[in-house]
Amino acid sequence: MISKNKKPSNWVKKAIENIEPGGSLIDIACGEGRHSKYLSRKFYVYAVDINKTYLEKLSKIPNIETINQDLESNEEWKFSKREFNIVLVTNYLYRKKILNLFKLVKLNGYLIYETFAIGNEKFGKPTNPSYLLKSNELLKIKPKNFETIEFFEGIRIQNFKKSKVQRLLAKRVF
Ligand SMILES: C[S@@+](CC[C@H](N)C(=O)[O-])C[C@H]1O[C@@H](n2cnc3c(N)ncnc32)[C@H](O)[C@@H]1O
Fold first, then answer.
1. Per-residue pLDDT tens for 52-107?
2. 71 lies in a domain?
3. How far apart are CA 35 and CA 45, in angstroms?
4. φ, ψ for residue 24 (rounded to 5)?
């Protein structure tokens, strides 16, 4: 049985259902790969993380290619010149480079972002504002060439646990 915190996000699963399978997906700060594993059935997945132990396990799974990268260093990302059908980010935030994530999306591709938002302090970690999106932040920073398909800011209840999250599903239209 898959432990609760290793299950893919219900919202991510729902967002993906409406996207045609095939093509490439990059899972930014993939962790142990709860999404990479689930989505490798439908997409060719590039799983990126700083943690080599996580990546080693994921590299054994068909349709997953791992990329070991410190996303927060001054070094250019190894994949920064590439584009992907889907860019997925969950439970990760590094503001300084957040706009670079949109640049990785192919024309007609999607950004799927779900992470903690301000107000989450009431429910648990993270509590550091550096890791919490400000009110409407994803909407405010979204470049003009992206169309919002779905945006949500509010309480998420998953596995009987409450958290405050923000979600954006956006399509690159030009
Ligand atoms: C809370 S986990 C989220 C994992 C996954 N996205 C998920 O939702 O299950 C945050 C992940 O960010 C990764 N991470 C933290 N700092 C990083 C950095 N500077 N570069 C790359 N990955 C980093 C950690 O190794 C960890 O796997």
1. 999 999 999 999 999 999 999 999 999 999 999 999 999 999 999 999 999 999 99
2. yes
3. 9
4. -110, 150
Establish if 8 belongs to a structural domain: no
Percent of the chain with pLDDT over 70: 97
How many domains would you assign to the chain? Answer: 1
CA of 5 to the centre of ligand 1 (A): 14
- Are the C-beta atoms of residues 129 and 164 closer than 8 Å to each other? no
Residue bearing the bigger pLDDT, 2 or 137: 137
CATH number of the domain that residue 45 is part of: 3.40.50.150
* Residues 117, 113: Cα–Cα separation, whole Å: 12
Ligand 1 binding pocket (C-beta < 6 A) is 29-31, 34, 49-51, 54, 69-72, 90-92
**Range of the structural domain that residue 119 is part of:** 23-172
118 C-alpha to ligand 1 centroid (Å): 19
The CA 86 to ligand 1 mean position distance, Å, reads: 18
Specify if 55 maps to a domain.
yes
